[in-house]
DNA sequence: CGAGTTAGTTTATCGCTTGAACTATATAAT
DNA sequence: ATTATATAGTTCAAGCGATAAACTAACTCG
C-alpha cells in the first residue's frame, strides 16, 4: 500500500498485456493532458481528443471514469462567444490533495497541496532530531500530519496520499531509511501506513535532495528537463533529473555528488572516503575554513555570521567560499561528463552563497568541463523553502497522474 | 529507416494506446522468452503460455505471426519419453542474422551473427583511418560489408539489419558522428542506408565503448545488470549499463569516464579540460610515462613493448601503470557515487594490463569509495576481440526482440 | 487397445478503441 | 423569429485482441 514507486503507465515486459493496459495507458494520457494544462484554460473533451489523437468517444468514456474517481471536476461555466456548442471545462478537482512531509535535522514539517500543486496548509515545527530514536520523531510527525490533514479538510481538501522526505539514503520499496548520518539513523524501517492511515495512495519515502530536485523540476523554469540539483545542507546531497525523470540508479541512490572526489590528496570524509566534495563544500567544512565557530551556535546563526563576514569582505570567509566553489566545479564537471548533463541547480546554502560562489564555480567549470556546462546554465533553486516537502508531494501527484487507475474502486 | 533506436515495447505516453499496442507488447513478450531460452531447450507454445501468463490461444496466435515474419522456426524433432502429446519446439530462426560493423583508428571490420548471437562470418581489414575523410572510409566499409553479407548468404543466413560502432560521440537519431577526435571527424552525417541497402531493420549507429559495454552485457557473466564498462583505447571511453539498459543520458553521450577529473592540478586534455583521466590512463599517456617511444611504432607494437617492460619489472613502466590504476580508481569512485554503480568491467588496454593495474586500482577504490566498489567486482571484459562489433550487432538483435512487429509486412 | 496426459486449435465472450451517425447547443445570416 | 452553420458530446455497430472453455491431436502407460 505504502510502496507506490512511480510506475510506468503500461506494464513492464514480463507480464502479459491486455486491454486493461490500454485503458490504463489512455487514462494516464488524458489525465496528463488535463494536469499539464494551465489552470483556467477550460480544457474540454473535444480539445483533449484533438490533442491526444483519441476519438471523442474514447475521451468521453475515459473522462467519465476519471470523474467517478473524484480527481477530475467539470466546470459549469462555459466561455461563450465562439460559434457552436460550448464545451464543458475539465480540471483537476481542487477538493483533492496530497500531503508532503519532511523530517530534517532541526525540524519536522507537513503540508498539503491540491493536485495542481497549490499549497493548502503548511506547518513547520522545530525539533532537534539529531541522534533521536526514530519512534518519537515519527510520533511527533504523525501528530503534526493529523493536524495538517484536518486543517486541509476544513478547507475542503481531502488527502489522497503522501510523500515523506528524509535526509539520507532510502529504499522506497521497503520504506526503509538505509542511512541518515545526520539523524543517526541506520537501517530504520518506517511503518508509513501508521503515520497517516487510510490513504488510498499510501505514503512514499523520498531522499531529501531527490525530492527537492523534483520540486525544482515541477516549479522551476519550464522546459528544463535535465539538470543536476546540488543540495547544500550539513552534507552535500544531489538529485539527478534526466528527461524529466528522477534518475536513481540501479539501487535507488544515485546523485550523491557530495562524495565525488575533488581532491585525491584531500582530507577524510565522514563516509570513509577521501577528498570528497563534502569535505570542502559542506556547511561544517565552510564554517571551519571561514573561521566561524560552530560551538553553541545553531546552523542558522552560523550561516548568518558567514554571510555577514562575506558582506564585509573578510578574506577568510571569501577564501573558504571560493574554495568550495572551485571544488563544486570539479565535482560538477566530472558528473557532467559521465552523465552528459549540462545544467546545475544550486540549492540549500549553495543558493544562499551563490553571489560569492559563482565566480570560482564558473571558472572551475570552464577549466574542467569546457563547452559542457556554461555559466548561464548554473542557476539557483526556484523553490526556496520546503523544497523537499513540495517535491515529495508533487511526486505523489505525478505518480497519480501517470497511473490514475489506482484510484478506481 | 536507419534510425532504429531501441524503442519501448509499448508506446510512450503521448500517443493513444490501442489494441495494436497490446499485440506488439505481447509479441515482444513471447519473442523475449524464446530469445532468452538457452539454445536446444525445445521451448513449446504451452511452456511459453505457462511462463508468460498468456493463454495458450494467445500464444498460438502470436507465434503464428512471428513464424510468418521468419524470425522464428519450428523444430520438428520432439523429445519423446514424456507422457502426453509432445510439443513443437520453437527457436530463433538460424537463417536470419544481423551485421555488426566497426570503424576504428587502425581498421575497419564487419561480421554477421545469427539471432542467437553466434558469429557466422567476421572480417577485419587493417586500414589507417586517422585523419581520413569519411567518404573513402565508408566506401571501403561498404565494400567489406557487401562481401561479408554475401558470405553469410552463402552459409544460409539472411541479414535483417545492422549496427555500426564508431570511436566517438554519435547521435543515433540523425546517424551523425558528432566528434571522433581520433579519426578527425567532426559532425559527419553518415548515409547509412547506402552502406548496405534494403535491410528491413536499417542500420543503427553506436558509440564504440557503448557497443562494447552492450557486448559485455550480452556475453559476460549472467545476472550482471549494472556496471561501468571502461574502454581503454587511444582515448578512454566508457559505457554505462544500468538495469540491463545502456544509459546514454539526456543527449545520448553519457559514460565519458575518460574525462572525469582525477587531478585538479593535472595537465591539459585534448578535450580542452584539465586533469582528465585520459591524460593519465590513455594509451599515449601511459606509453609516454613509461618511456616507450611512440614514433614509428604502431600502437600494437608499443603495447607489446609495454607488456614486455612490465614483465621485466622495469620501474618506469610499473610506475606508469600504477599511476593509471590509481587515477582510474579515482574516476571510478566518483562515478560510482554519482551513479550508484558497484561493478566495473575493464576493456581494451585496461584488460591487457589488468595484472599490473589491479593493485593500485583496488587500493584507490578502497580509499575513495570504501564499501561501494569491492575488488571482486572489478573484472576484465569477457569479450576480447571485436567487442564493439558484437555489441552493435547484439543491440540490433535485442531491439528486434523488443519490437518484433517491425518485421511484419 | 483404451485410459490418461499433455499440446495445440476452435469458438464464444468480453473489453476497449474506432468511426460514423446522431443529438445538443451555441453563433451568424436572413 | 427562423434557418443555416459550427462545434461538443453521446450512441451504436464494427473490429481487434485477450480469455476461458471446449475440443481435437498425439503421445505414454498399463
Key attributes of the depicted protein:
5-stranded mixed beta sheet, homodimer, 13 helices, DNA-binding, 409 residues, globular, Arc Repressor Mutant, subunit A, disordered N terminus, 3 domains, alpha/beta, Nucleotidyltransferase, domain 5
CATH superfamily of the largest domain in chain A: ATPase, nucleotide binding domain
Instruction: Name the CATH class of the largest domain in chain A.
Output: Alpha Beta
* Shape designation of chain A: globular
Widest sheet of chain A: strand order? 5-4-3-6-10
Estimate the mean pLDDT confidence of chain A: 92
Number of strands of chain A: 15
Provide the succession of SSEs of chain A: HHHEEEEEHEEEEHEHEEEHHHHEHHEH
Quick synopsis:
The structure is a homodimer of 409-residue chains. Chain A is an alpha/beta fold and 409 residues long.
Describe the structure.
The structure is a homodimer of 409-residue chains. By secondary structure, chain A is an alpha/beta fold. Chain A has three domains: 74 residues, Winged helix-like DNA-binding domain superfamily/Winged helix DNA-binding domain (Arc Repressor Mutant, subunit A); 139 residues, 2-Layer Sandwich (Nucleotidyltransferase, domain 5); 160 residues, ATPase, nucleotide binding domain (Nucleotidyltransferase, domain 5). Chain A is built from 13 helices and 15 strands. In chain A, the strands form four sheets. A five-stranded mixed β-sheet of chain A has the order 5-4-3-6-10, with helices on both faces. Chain A has a five-stranded mixed β-sheet with strand order 13-12-11-14-15, with helices on both faces. In chain A, helix 2 packs across helix 3 and helix 6 packs across helix 13. The first copy, chain A, is globular, with a radius of gyration of 23 Å. The two termini of chain A are 15 Å apart. The N terminus of chain A is likely disordered. At the A-B interface, helix 1, strand 12 and helix 10 of A face helix 1, strand 12 and helix 10 of B. Chain A binds a DNA duplex (30 and 30 nucleotides) through helix 1, helix 2 and helix 3.
